[in-house]
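User: I'm putting together notes for a lab meeting next week and I want to include a structural view of one of the chains we've been expressing. I don't have a solved structure, so I'd like a prediction I can at least talk through. The sequence is below, exactly as it appears in our construct file.
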Amino acid sequence: MTRISVVIPVYKCSHSIVALTTRLKEAISCLTHDFEIIYINDASPENDWEIIVFLAKKDARIKGVNLSRNFGQHYAITAGLATSLGDWVVVMDGDLQDRPEEIVHLYNKAQQGFDIVFAQRIARKDKFLKRLSSAVFYQVLGYLTDTPQNASVANFGIYSRNAVNAVLSMHDDVRFLPTMLHWVGFNKTMLPVQHEKRTQGKSSYSLKKLLQLAFDNLIAFSNKPLRLVVKFGFFIVLLSVLFAMYFLFKYLNGEVSVLGYSSVIISIWFLAGIIIMTLGIVGIYIGKIYEKLKGRPCYIVKNKINI
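Assistant: Thanks for the context. Below is the predicted structure for the 307-residue chain, given as structure tokens.
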């Protein structure tokens, strides 16, 4: 019998965990009775963990992982993937915007020969600014990391054990599930699903956090900034040569007697800025290497239940 694992990172989801669990049981029972629901509490300030423990004591198929502090959504997902035992693993959010009933459709689609089936939110029910910031985030991330990105696709989807093991074999300090799933390959597709409105609370991803996430992924998954800086350097050199030829031509024609002080100062400041920016980008990559050499775990488990 096929075993299905559902991995759900939770943070301020105390209002939805009970309802989500009930709907998950009903939905997955249509496919198999051999399943596990794994909640990963990312140090929520609400009583998320207490609710998870209460549910787990009533049903051994409900499991909980309590992280020692807030590591972030994708690190919590990694903890859940490492805990899961299913032949197929579903990853979804815990705020009920991802509908449990769609799991049946995702699973049936995967049986057509796909290892990775992303849930594509055709009509997102988020606010305009949230949709706009996500669209900008994915466009910039896709360009700078040279990987396909789609604002309508997030973590929600179903993934084969081979795909999950491949993601877990990546020891990157920066974790971002969609990009990692694209990187590992395998047969993948997208399935349109319904997306629900957020009933309570608000997204923990502010514009600042999205920008930080994009920056971390850019450094982790691509060296394109370095290549762009090299291209920009060649452009500056070419521009400088043309600039010098222009003033040489004017000087030979007697149009310039003394070169201007302003142009010299502007050139110095401009080139100094380019050098500092280049050193900064290189320094960031070196800093990431330093962080990697520390060998710190990307998450720490405080305690578990039913595992």
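A couple of points you could mention at the meeting. The longest strand covers residues 153-160. The chain is about 50% helix and 15% strand.

User: Perfect, that's what I needed.
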